[in-house]
TrEMBL record, chains A, B:
Highest taxon listed in the record's lineage: Eukaryota
Organism listed in the record: Quercus suber (Cork oak)
Name of the protein this chain belongs to: Universal stress protein a-like protein
Domain UspA: 117-189
Matching PANTHER family: ADENINE NUCLEOTIDE ALPHA HYDROLASES-LIKE SUPERFAMILY PROTEIN
InterPro entries in alphabetical order: At3g01520-like_plant, Rossmann-like_a/b/a_fold, Universal_stress_UspA, UspA
SUPFAM superfamilies: Adenine nucleotide alpha hydrolases-like (SSF52402)
One protein family per Pfam: Usp
GO molecular function: AMP binding
Amino acid sequence: MEIEIEGGSVTRILMGVSESTIKGHPHASISSRGAFDWTIQKIVRHNTSAFKLLFLHVQVPDEDVVFCICEENHSIMTVCHNFLLLGFDDMDSIYASPEDFKSLMNRDRAKGLHLLEYFVTRCHEIGVSCEAWIKRGDAKEVICHEVKRVQPDLLVVGSRGLGPFQRVFVGTVSEFCVKHAECPVITIKRSADEAPQDPVDD
Amino acid sequence: MEIEIEGGSVTRILMGVSESTIKGHPHASISSRGAFDWTIQKIVRHNTSAFKLLFLHVQVPDEDVVFCICEENHSIMTVCHNFLLLGFDDMDSIYASPEDFKSLMNRDRAKGLHLLEYFVTRCHEIGVSCEAWIKRGDAKEVICHEVKRVQPDLLVVGSRGLGPFQRVFVGTVSEFCVKHAECPVITIKRSADEAPQDPVDD
């Protein structure tokens, strides 16, 4: 029996990706890389033309801005940009002028773009179609909102695989998405041997 | 870049499948069929040789028995069989002799085998490799135990997609598996238009 695939369309997989929390390392977190590798190896496999990966990175809500990396030419499109001088997550510096905020914002944006560039480049190397964008807000709320808007076939989120005690403080994004996202959700727990000594170093 | 797939092995997807609860309808439940269809259409697609589906049906613990349907010739292997005269889920009849239990047990087993036959036949038609077996026990505990034993790449469970109030009474299997299964889990919620008027009729 022939497998009927609706309209011959590709399977669109939305992946929530995050940066490593190690200061000065604007790299993909271990859990995000793990979730990506798993999705390629176990789901996409060699059937690259049948899938499209959508990468969403949610940054803390210090500004209301949307950036997109266009897969074809890696150009950056700024869709919306309302600068708010509130809520930066790096408190090591003192901000004395509007310029301080501007440079910080640029650095913050650059980190997010580096993160997306990592995944877009990997997709390009593998030969799987993709799109990537950044949104600001509460990660779990934004991811579920984007699922509603983008309507992917599947949402993949990495998880640090923490114990119940640690989960009280972190790692509730995946649990929230499993309950509230309006599409099937896979949580990829990081394997124990990939966990850094300090849980913050993911 | 070539996608490296460990040992060139297939992606093994374990699916927990259940019967419809409508009396006299030994058919796959709407949620099980939905989860199967989704997995074929969105994950396996036409890449049938890269996947193997493993169907696990968990029956209520009235006996400790394992049946397997062998994909190649549909023969039934009884691995273990310890008959216990306790805990049947159908209370419409009075059981007066050991023979009554035996015929009931045969009917129960036949229902479970029909269920697995449905999925094995569909896999055969589609051309995707599969295995199917029945275990007795508490569904959520047995599924997680089988994940540990069989070590699939992915567990897929259907869910009735009930509201928080209804979830208190049913539908906790998927939630338990998401938390406790030692592999990534996808819960496929039944879409609203597939829900029967009476939730019990799934």
